[in-house]
Amino acid sequence: MIKNNENEKYEDGLISEQPRPETTALTDSTHHHMVRPNDLEPINRFFEWPVIRDDGAYQPIQYKTVGHLLSSGVTPENIQAANLIFMCMLSARLGYPISAMLDPDNTHEAVKLLDYCRRVVPEDAVIEFPEFKPEYLYIDHGRRLDGRCIISPAENGFSKVSRDLELVLTRGHTIRQDVAKGKYKVDLSEHRSEMHISVLGINGGKPGKGLSLPSVLTIPVGTNPGIILPCMTDVFERYGLVYSPLFKIRKSFQRLKSKTVVIPYEHQLATAIIESGCDHAAEKLTILKNLISICALISNPPKVKMAELGAIMFGTDEDEISRWMRDTGLEKDVSPTPNEPIIASKVEYQMARLLLDGILITGSNRFTDREKKVFKTVKAINMGKMSEAMLKRDDDVERLSTLAQHYGYWATREKVFEIINSSDFDFSLSSVSNDLVALTKLGVLERAKPPKRKQYGYYITTMSLSDAIELPAPSTIQDPIYEGKDVLVVNPLTGEVEKI
């Protein structure tokens, strides 16, 4: 764990802490996919870089971002959501747009989370509208919004423009016709807007009001008023934030440029998603690929050039500074920089997989913790009433068929309520009833009235309630960078070192 970033050195073009021990898990030769700055002067300290720690573990830039989010007040339960949100904010700017709607327990908590995440991204990466209107899409033919993440902190803030916005997100443009009626003629004018954007909004729980595209993620945001936030001093020391202030983080993200990213294990990911049986497999694969690509761009920041520093100093365009330096002889090397694609390794895949864990789901509906608890209770009641001989049979289809035919195995609403509240939970009878109805509509429970009874009995129609797509383990990913070798990586969400 980094205690003092003053111990960092620039070795072989990478920022590395000293002393650097030998490790078989991570060597310089395995890092040829990373951009190696040729300027080894202290000027590189003005930007963030991935580092190799004393223990040989690869530490991504996102580790410092997590530290700032925690210090801002993001709770540990929402740190995954916060990381995914700020990636969405950067996505359109980097050419790999990812859109999402937040699904909060409390709207105020979601609004705060959006504000916290805005602090770590460049100002020009996002644009916020309390309520987005259709005419905003057509300002300057979309050029004002192109490459930006549109944020609406209001519940269902995109409801008035959902149709136009869905067209833009799907095909990159939208068209609108206006009819102008005069005294003697009628004119038809057409307005076309082209842009590549991402959006971030907040669901208000009203069906049909939010964005319903399969390419739009739903990010759950929790509220736990009893949680104890980590000590600010401990967070600053643990994450070394004194050496990585927010303005440094923002500038490091701002200097990233869109670039082609090659994912050599794409077929392996596509196979896993298709075999999961999920809906809209193509859209979900695109989300995963875009997130991997963003992680790869963050892991491979460009070399620091004098033209870039001059542009920052004089507040002008980098190309203009470059021309001036060539004309005056200040820049000797005029050979163009090769525009080679970035190769995404299993390290970037691991980062994306962590952020999408439990978020990338097989269907269009996500089960809440309450619904999972109710389902588990119904299943326990159903199975508890079955004969031991039936339970020993390794045939789920036969078990489910038996449940459907024998009402003596079914669970009543009152029994579910009783069992749940006897195990340190506090569910009301009406809320249990609502969850049972919701699970029945989703098809994972069925209900019927046994003969001569007024109350419904409930039984399961599936043995498990997993809605998350199971992605391949990082250790199974084959890429030309690590070639199947073990790698020590710092999990930015937990700070723990993991071997992949």
Structure in a nutshell:
The chain has 500 residues and is of the alpha/beta class. The protein is 35% helix and 15% strand.
Properties at a glance:
500 residues, alpha/beta, 5-stranded parallel beta sheet, disordered N terminus
Topology (elements, then pairings):
Blueprint lengths: L7 E4 L2 E4 L33 E2 L5 E2 L2 H11 L6 H13 L7 E6 L2 H12 L7 E3 L20 E7 L6 H10 L1 E9 L4 E9 L3 E5 L13 E6 L10 H8 L6 H9 L6 E2 L3 H10 L5 H19 L6 H9 L3 H11 L13 E2 L2 H11 L12 H16 L3 H5 L3 H10 L5 E2 H9 L7 H13 L3 E4 L8 E4 L27 E3 L6 E3 L1
Parallel strand pairs: 2-3, 5-10, 5-11, 6-7, 7-10, 12-13
Antiparallel strand pairs: 1-2, 3-4, 8-9, 14-16, 15-16, 17-18
Please tell me about this protein's structure.
Strands 6-7-10-5-11 form a 5-stranded parallel sheet, with helices on one face. A 4-stranded mixed sheet has the order 1-2-3-4, with no helix packed on it. With 500 residues, the protein is an alpha/beta fold. A hairpin with a 4-residue loop joins strand 8 (173-181) and strand 9. It has helices spanning 62-72, 79-91, 107-118, 162-171, 232-239, 246-254, 266-275, 281-299, 306-314, 318-328, 346-356, 369-384, 388-392, 396-405, 413-421, 429-441, and strands spanning 8-11, 14-17, 51-52, 58-59, 99-104, 126-128, 149-155, 173-181, 186-194, 198-202, 216-221, 261-262, 342-343, 411-412, 445-448, 457-460, 488-490, 497-499. 35% of the residues lie in helices and 15% in strands. Residues 1-40 have low confidence and may be disordered. The longest helix has 19 residues, at 281-299. The chain has 16 helices and 18 strands.
